[in-house]
Amino acid sequence: MSVPSVNREAMKIVEEICAKPEKYNVIIKRNSSGAFIIDAGINAKGGFLVGKLITEICLGGLGKARLSSMRIGEIELPSIIVYTDHPAISTLGSQLAGWRIKIGEYMAIGSGPARALALKPKRIYSKIKYKDDANEAVLVLESSEEPPEEVVKIISSSCRISPENLFLIFAPTASVAGLTQISGRIVETGMHKLVELGLEPNLISYAWGQAPILPVHPNDIESMGRANDAILYGGMAHYVVSHEDDAYLRSLVERAVSSVSKDYGKPFSEIYEAAGQDFYKIDPKIFAPAKIAITNEKSGKTFTAGRINEKILLKSIGFSS
């Protein structure tokens, strides 16, 4: 069976955005090298609609997203539901924010299908046994600045395409589109944690997840904190796995939720400040969904761990009744 191209599938969604920029509140231009720049939250308004589509682009067009709601204590918040029949390729092979771009003073984290052309990082693609061969590339950059010409050329060269076939999408964390697509990483966050704990990624057949979309905060650090809180305290994911050992899966799920971390129990912005704004000083166990379930399709049994922490989520958004 042929393997789908994450870039070709994602381009179908990019074409929809480019055809209707007014509908999606984006600004589209071409830089001097010919690359397409799609602004979904820097100078553009962006919003939920384009945030949903960016989520699907990051999944390489191999997953779907749907906007919904979640009740957190006394308040109803918007949420995003994500599901995929290609969990390893769509999340680890595309959506994972795995491409660190640092050229001179410019720094950004890249996610999305272009990674599968540049093989960033290579060990992930060796593990999931996947690579893409498209002649167009789409990359979502976590940055509030457009990249200089040199960076665009390095990205296109790494993907082995011409700059005219490169599409760069920007949705800063402190924007509705940015917070929407980050909450849309709930399945990927759990996938990454399970694989980090030793599960073979290609044994995961199907995946589903939901996370709240917390309100934007005008302060970048607070907005970043809320983006993390949505997953660490409000996100839940369910995976269907084909495995011989139920006991192993039971043990695995218990170690794959955020509550096992010593840093668990306060909003992420406080954790970040206590670590001196240094991500490397934060306990990595915290970067996991609040709740995970695994169903073993070989035995039919389901195992679950973790819980939604309404108290921390309400504190995170400054809610008072």
The Rg value, from CA coordinates, equals: 19 Å
Low-confidence parts lasting 5 or more residues at pLDDT below 50?
A: none
| Oligomeric grouping of the chains | single chain
Which structural class fits the helix and strand makeup?
alpha+beta
Name the strands of the widest sheet in spatial order: 1-2-8-7-6-5
Shape: globular
Helix content: 25-40%
Main sheet makeup: 6 strands, mixed
| Average of the residue pLDDT scores | 96
Strand content: 15-25%
Number of helices: 12
User: What's the helix-strand series?
Assistant: HEEHEEHEEHHEHEHHEHEHHEEH
- Number of strand elements: 12
Q: How far is the N terminus from the C terminus? A: 55 Å
Summary keywords:
single chain; about 325 residues; alpha+beta; six-stranded mixed sheet; 12 helices; globular
What this model shows, in words?
There is one protein chain. Strands 1-2-8-7-6-5 form a 6-stranded mixed beta sheet, sandwiched between helices. Strands 3-4-9-10-11-12 form a 6-stranded mixed beta sheet. It has helices at residues 6-19, 48-58, 87-95, 115-118, 122-128, 149-158, 176-183, 186-196, 220-232, 246-255, 268-274, 310-316, and strands at 27-30, 36-39, 63-72, 75-84, 99-103, 106-111, 137-142, 166-170, 204-212, 236-241, 291-296, 302-306. The protein starts with 5 loop residues before the first helix and ends in a 5-residue tail after the last helix. Helix 1 (6-19) packs antiparallel against helix 2 (48-58) and helix 2 (48-58) packs across helix 7. The protein contains 12 helices and 12 strands. A hairpin with a 2-residue loop joins strand 3 and strand 4. By secondary structure, the protein is α+β, with helices and mostly antiparallel strands. 35% of the residues lie in helices and 24% in strands.
